[in-house]
Amino acid sequence: MCLPAFPRPHRDDVLIAVSGLAGGLLLWTFGLHNSAGVGLLNGAWITLVPLVTMAGMELLRRTRPRTALTVGTLALVLELLTPGNLVTLLMFTDLVYAAVVYGSPSTARRLPYATALVAIAATIGLLAWYREPYALILGLIIGLVTFGPAATGALVRNHRDAADAARLRAEQTALLAEMDRTQAVNAERARMARELHDLVANHLSAIAIHSTAALSLDRPETTRQALTVIRENSVAGLAEMRRLIGLLRDSSGGAEPAAAPTLGAMDTLIAQAGANGEASGLRFTLHDERDGDAALPAPVELAAYRIVQESLTNALKHAGAGEVTVYLAGAPGDALTVIVDSPFGLRPGPRAPGSGAGLVGMRERVALLGGEFEAGPVEGPADGETKVWRVRALLPMEKDKEPSA
């Protein structure tokens, strides 16, 4: 049968035990005792038993505080039957203090109350036994030996627990701040990706489409027209890129951002799409049935403009010859409806490569405003058989509606 091994004592506990034992031996050598040689158990050597026992328990004051206090209490009882040693009494007070500081939470809560009851009961018993005022002095000494260290340990432990709790709260606050920063960075990156895609993709798609036409059709007039469109879109795309890069580099906030596009510029956007899609046989039509006096919230108006812009870009890439219809409707306090229909299924492949980020960006814009979004083929309005690709967005128009992060 193997006995449980005690953990290795702390370095400070070894120092306390050795110092206490040395001090007690020094007092014992000079014959200095608490009761001046009076005790039930007389003898020079008998005082060393509780002294050595108490010094041994000091080695366990931090690793096994309950065991150390239990054995130390028994050693104190034996100490009371001997002439006594002051160092033994001092080491017992340290064991009481350590039991509260390093013991379990239940021990830390109960020991101060238990020692207070012991001190009160001892004082009452001494008064009843001696019936002399000096019994109060003895009770006070018992309280200092038992309740005093326990109360001091409780104060120290409460202070340490409060410091640990404050440190934990600080770490949690720092973690939450880091999470918020990461989410803010990710949200800003997503916003920048949407803006960059919407600003530049339209121009680059037009350049790709017309450069393909210029290479495939060997006609001077077609080539000249394509090169004109390519130049216009490249200049416009370059200007948009410079503006966006300027805003990103200026961290002071001193640069004035360009005005956000509004639905009032929808005619210009439709005209530009018509010029870009003329060579592909695409016609673009706008049906604006909104209330002209209704002012739209800026986030809603920007989202609607970008959705139409991206839908027209997708039509230039994928739609066959035919009509692309843009439909806007809405009333104050209601929701803005954006519908873009384009011919579907008439081409074997896209005119220009795409990444698929356009639909993702449109869906994200609508989700940030708490609206509804859908995109896909539906039956055409004319004969019910010809399918069209429809992009439909429903954007709430509350004045206090702000995009969520």
Please, could you describe this protein's structure?
The protein has 10 helices and 5 strands. It has 405 residues and is α+β, with helices and mostly antiparallel strands. It has 2 domains: 164 residues, no CATH class; 143 residues, 2-Layer Sandwich (Heat Shock Protein 90). A 5-stranded mixed β-sheet has the order 1-2-3-5-4, with helices on one face. Strand 4 and strand 5 form a beta hairpin. Helix 6 packs across helix 9, helix 8 packs parallel to helix 9 and helix 9 runs antiparallel to helix 10. The chain is rod-shaped, with a radius of gyration of 44 Å. It starts with 10 loop residues before the first helix and ends in a 9-residue tail after the last strand. About 1% of the residues have low confidence.
